[in-house]
Design goal:
This protein is mainly α. It has one helix at about 1-95.
C-alpha cells in the first residue's frame, strides 16, 4: 500500500512538473512574441527617426539658403538706399 501511495505521489509530482513545464513553455512563447513585437516597434521607430533626421537636414539646408538670400537682398537694399539718398541729395542740390 505504501508503494501504491508512493506511485500516486510520484504520478502527482510528475503531472505537476509536466504542468509547470507546460506553463513555462507557454510563458516563453508569450515572451518571444512580445519580444518580436518590441523589435518590430523599434525598427519602425528607427525608420521614423531616420525620416525625421532627413527632414531636419533638409530644413537646415533651406534655412541656410534663405539666410544667404536674405543677406544678398539686404546688401541690394542697402545699395538701393544709398543710391536713393545720392539721388535725393542731387535733387535737393538742383533745387
Amino acid at each position: 500500500m505504501d508503494k501504491h501511495r508512493a506511485d500516486e505521489a510520484n504520478g502527482f509530482k510528475s503531472t505537476f512538473v509536466e504542468d509547470e513545464i507546460g506553463e513555462l513553455r507557454k510563458y516563453i512563447v508569450e515572451m518571444m512574441h512580445a519580444e518580436m513585437k518590441l523589435m518590430e516597434s523599434i525598427k519602425l521607430n528607427e525608420g521614423n527617426v531616420a525620416a525625421a533626421n532627413t527632414r531636419i537636414k533638409h530644413f537646415k539646408e533651406l534655412i541656410i539658403q534663405e539666410r544667404a538670400r536674405f543677406k544678398t537682398l539686404k546688401k541690394e537694399l542697402e545699395g538701393d538706399v544709398n543710391e536713393l539718398k545720392a539721388l535725393e541729395g542731387k535733387q535737393s542740390g538742383e533745387k
